[in-house]
């Protein structure tokens, strides 16, 4: 079954993406997807949560909130238009920084979102994946690379507990600008946090995003990397492919490789076409 539970960023509703939401949805349909989850980024509760590119464009939190409402409305309309051809789930990619858990809950409830992808892009107030320079800044603020990873996985754990996302997005995004990420992950103080967070995912019945966008960013394997995927397999954690598409050209990218990695480990993708899927666990 072709699904993407972390996909559908569009140039209309995300300043670092391309193409319209309708064009991206049509691309999923042409590519034979039975289900796609649209997951535009949540608007920040205040201007301190803006991405660097949003700041450069003069965006405000209020403007982002209004645009997000337009996204939800269009996504719902597209879900109705495609209901006999493809299931469209209307969700959002959450963020995590101090004090935003109530905001995530309010957005989820107000917009009646189908689900939330729980992601972390900020450590020590720095959007670490925006550039190599921002990554280095975050590492310096933490006191080094290992400490950056530890802070990231601690922030992720806090996000998981506070927002209880149905899907956990690009679990090891923190490795993006680290060519020696396998060694860093193997550091005891990092690996114990990885296992702790995976245990939470298993206990909550959440789904681990196997995110192919890493391949577009020059990585040799998706998020998550092999050691973490092996650990998730041993724990019996549910997984799902995500292309994290930021335009039509990204739709379905890396799907075959992800399917091969999951098949080698006997990992299962949940039946997201089931009416019961969205109630698969108690929030």
> Mind telling me the CATH class?
Alpha Beta
Order of helices and strands: EHEHHEHEEEHHEHHEHHEH
Across the major sheet, the strand order is 1-2-3-4-7-8-9
Helix percentage range: 40-55%
Task: Identify low-pLDDT runs.
Answer: none
Q: Name the assembly state.
A: single chain
Estimate the strand proportion. 5-15%
CATH topology: TIM Barrel
Number of domains: 1
Total helix count?
11
Integer-rounded radius of gyration: 18 Å
Biggest sheet descriptor: 7 strands, parallel
The CATH architecture can be given as Alpha-Beta Barrel
Instruction: Name the CATH superfamily classification.
Output: Metal-dependent hydrolases
- How far apart lie the N and C ends? 26 Å
Secondary structure category: alpha/beta
Outline type: globular
SS elements, strand count: 9
Arithmetic mean pLDDT: 94
Quick take:
This protein is of the alpha/beta class and 283 residues long. It has eleven helices and nine strands.
Write up what this structure looks like.
Helix content is 44%, strand content 14%. With 283 residues, the protein is of the alpha/beta class. The protein has a 7-stranded parallel β-sheet. Strands 5-6 form a two-stranded antiparallel sheet. The longest helix is centred in the first third of the chain and has 21 residues, at 61-81.
